[in-house]
Every structure is written in C-alpha cells, then in structure tokens.
Amino acid sequence: MFARLPFTQYSFAMASRGFSRLASLRNISGPISRDLKLTLYATRQTVLSSCCRVMSSSSKGTAADKKTAATSSKSFAMNMFQGKLQTVEVFPFPNVLSDEQEENLKMFIDPVEKFTEINDPAYNDQIETVPDEIMDALRELGAFGMQVPTEFGGIGLSNTQYGRLAEILGSHDLSIGIVLGAHQSIGFKGILLYGTPEQKNKYLPDLAAGKNIAAFALTEPSSGSDASSIRTRAVLSADKKHYILNGTKLWISNGGFAEIFTVFCQTPVTGADGETKDKITALIVERKFGGISNSPPEKKMGIKSSNTAEVTFDNVKVPVENLLGAEGEGFKVAMNILNNGRFGMAAALSGTMRHMIAKAVDHASNRTQFGDKLHNYGTIQEKLARMAMVHYVTQSMAYMIAGNMDTGSTEFQIEAAISKIYGSEAAWFVTDETIQIMGGMGFMKEANVERVLRDLRIFRIFEGTNDILRLFIGLTGMQNAGKQLQQVLKALKSPLTNFGTIMGEGSKRVTRMMGMSSGPSLTEFAHKDLSGPAQLTTKSLEMFGASVESMLIKYGKKIVHQQFLVNRVAEAAIDIYAMVVILSRATSAIEKNLPTAELEKKMVHVFCSLAAERVKANLGQLKSSAHNANFKTMSQISDDLVDNSGLRLVAPVGF
Q1: Of 131, 188, 293, 574, which residue is 20 to 30 A from 196 by alpha carbon distance?
Q2: Is 463 one of the catalytic residues?
Q3: For the whole prediction, is pTM greater than 0.70?
Q4: DSSP strand pairing (214-217 vs 260-270)
Q5: Shortest CA distance to 397 belongs to which of 467, 438, 346?
C-alpha cells in the first residue's frame, strides 16, 4: 500500500510503522546502566567504568543535556553506531606538529635510536631486570618525563611526538616500554590530569627526572575485570587529617621499586540524601609514608625484565591533601588515565611490527627453497602483504587518535579501545607469521623473535582485556545510539511540532530500505583514486547503523546479555574504523604526492575489500537464525564443560 503514496507520505508512514516499535527503548538508558554495573562493571583497567559512567549519567541531568550528548558528538566511532558519517575527526588525516615541534622531535629521534644500541633486550630478559646503567641512560634521555610539561622539569612532548618515540622503543624492547609506560602513561598520569597545583609541584619534577618511579595500583587478588569488587579500603582518621589505607594489590608493574603509587580504594562517601556508601576513590601514596611492602618480582611468561609485584598497604597514613580528584570519583580518574594512554600502545606495537616485518622480509629474500627465493611464492607473498596491511592500519590508528587528542578531542574512548584491540592482535599475528616464514630458525632463541612473541601475549590482557573491550565498544556505542532513538520517540509524541525530525528519520529509513545511500558518502572526502574503497566503507557504515538500530529495537535493555551478538557488532565497528583511518591517511599521501602513495593506495584497496566482506558477514550473523542457534548451542557446550569440570569425552578406544 505504501508504494502508491507520494514520497513524503510514504516516508511518514514508514516512520510511524518503524517507530511504533521504539517503545521498547523507553527506559533503555537506566536498565542497561544497572545491568552493566552488575555484569561487566569496570575491568582491571576500568575500561568498562567509562561505559557505566556514561550510562548511569544518562539517567541524570536535564533533557537538554541528554539531547546534546546524543547529538553533538564529534567522535567518528560514536556517530558510527547511529549510521552517521561524522568526518571532522577523521578527515583530513591529522597533521598537528608545528615546525618547532617537528624539529624538536627530530632532535630526540637520534638519541633514542642510539639508546637501543646500548640496551640488550635479550640480556635483560635473561636476568629478568633492567640493569641500573640502562635506567640511568633512560634518565639522561629524559624518558621518564616525556609528556610532563617543561615547567615541571619534563620534555613536554605532545601525544603525536610521544607516539613517534614509542614506536622506536616498541621496535626494540617491549619490557623497557612497560617500565616507562607503567610509570608515565598510567602511573602518574592521574596527577597530570587531576592533580592540584600543589600536587603537581610536589611530585612531577622528581617523577619527570626518574628520581621517583610511579605505579598504577588497581588490580587485587579478588578483582580482575570486576574492579567494583576491590577490597582495599581507606577511612578517615579521627582527626580527619589522614586516610588510613589497608589492602593488597596484585600484578603491579613497577610495584617492586616504585616510590609513588596511584592507589584505588573503597572509601565511605555520604551522598546528598545523607546515605553513606562505599565508592572508589583515588589516592597518591608515597612509599615513605611507611606500611608499604612488596613481594619478590613475579615469574612471568614475557616482559621478564619489567618488575611486576604484589604490593601490600598496612595502615598507611595518607594525608587528605593526597586525594586525587574527588572522593568517590576513582573510576572516572582511572577511566581517563587509561583512555589517555591507550594510543601509545598502538604506536609502540606498530614499531614492534615494523621490526618483525623486516626480519621476515630479510629471511624471505635470502632463503632459497625448491630452486627459488621464498618471497617469490604466493603463500609467502600473501603473508607479507597481510602483515604490511595490519601494520599500516595500526600505525594509522595510533596517529589518528594522537592527532585528535592534540587538537583538543575529549571523546575518543571507543577509538582508543579499538586501537588497543587491533594493535595487540595485529602485533601477535605479525610476529607469529614472522616465525612461520622463518621456519625452524624463527623458533630458535638466537633469532630474537620468540622473546617478542612471549612479550606480546600480555598486551591482549592488560589495560583492558580485549574480550571486555569488545563489549565496551559495542555497549557504549549502542547506548549512545539508544539515546538518539529515544529522542525520535519523544518527537513522535508531538508530531506537529517535530515534523522535520520525524520526516528526516523516516526518509533515512526509506532510502535505506530501497538500497540507497541515506547520507553523505566518504567519496566526498577520499581521493578519487580511492572511490571504490570509499564506497565500500560508506555502505558498511550504513549497514552497521541499521543493524545497531534493529538490535536495539529487538532487545532493548536486554542487549547487555547478548554477548555473542555484541561481539559481532564490535568486530564490525573495528573494521569500519580501520577502513576510515587508512582511507584518510592514503588520501593525504596521494595529495602530498608522497613516495609511498602508490603502495598505500594498493593496501587500502585490498584491506577495504576484505574488511567490507567481514563487516557484511558479522552483521549478517546478527539476524541469522542459524547463527543464533549456534550461539545457543555453544552456550550449552560451555555449560557441559563447567558442569563436568572439563571435557567428559574419553578417547575413541573407550578409555
């Protein structure tokens, strides 16, 4: 019947038909928030705390605040969940360094590269520590205060500058990267972000000089991904001049020798209603306060020369002026610390990949088998090409996010989580393939590849396990999309005064159903030589937005329990963001006529073609009855394993 209506009437009819199902979203923000707090509440690195904070805050504040939050985001990833193309932070590719910053960065490159000549990562791995002379060399480089402002004795690097140096260190020794990262990316980052002027003046100079080393203390024996269950506790002393801190923290990087700790603990906080509840609070704690002890360094699979220890706080008296941020705002502090530092991981791991690719190429170029060089065989060519493409994506993500941060972006939590997942998994893939290309030689210790593989394994676990981060990406993005849908639902209650909104949404859905583009295309921003990949990415984006909307309408607040589906949404989101960042970077390379422009163009064409297929497959699984049946069956298989404490199958011989 709709086909006989004029287009505007058709749009309105389709809008009414589709929007009538949005009633299930009426209270999506509140219930999802509560369920998330119960099921996923903050990982060890509090990545999910940001999701919970965003969701719980959605039930507070004014209607105007909610509308602004839902519609004014400049984040590409956040808008992606609504099927919207927001390009302000992805096109053009960031070029944020001033001439002076570029010159300063070039001055640091040579000393950092020379440092890699005196440091022996294999020796450090063997003795399971960083020698004192190497720590001293890092101090001389100013490596402990790279992003500390110069007024506090640091180098004052921007995020982009820091990322470039992280690449060099990542290509050389990941354990050194952990020591430095645990110190400044998370250890004292809270002081930079939330510290009072007095706290900054007191602590930053010695931290920047490396006289004091910092650590980030969140994880406990009873709390890994569920940070809300931490038991470390601080209560005010009778004279209200100190917090008395008690508890134990587990697997703390730099924990054996750090002098300054950012500690997250439960504190009693009285709300406006007079009710007192335990909430997470952040404190700056000095070892010299007394009552702090640590275990011997943990024996680990990789990053062996970094120090990882259990740290115990026994009646530690922490001055009240060492409160970091506000009481009860510890999750917010931790969330922003981790979000601000996550891009550095992608930058460092792109350096690791570059080093591994060089080893693989060297072996493939010189090794002869069956009368020909390895690099002439299609199997090896595919491996090398895929390795190069995932490196290109990871590096592009790192500099895209760093550039956005340097230009004042504050909403990049989804993009940062994507870069962490993609970078850590890409680096593992590249290093594993390097070993495969090198064959038996790659497996030997002398090749210095097996150590890198061991070091890399932790990157998919710490600072947010990739499994939890995928849920964070999917649920945070869908929460924001749910807010937008609620605005449409609200508009339907007053159709005459909101006719423009209703017609706009209706038209978008009609054009989408007819297989037409419902908004701007990336072909308007990408170079014409990349029009094919740009069209694929635009189509993927629109399919993604429609799929997210369908899931929200179908599941409403129960979406939080559909982890099989949320993971597919996250996979598609990761691929779409990857496609966009390399489209932007390659466009810039072509426009600047860089020597690598042709190579970059080839990688974009291949990667986007493959990624678009993955997006289509992942989104297709969301509505596939066969896949949903498989998901249910997999749950049953898992339950069987748990119920029987493992596999109950016996060998085919019967015993």
Answers
A1: 293
A2: yes
A3: yes
A4: parallel
A5: 346
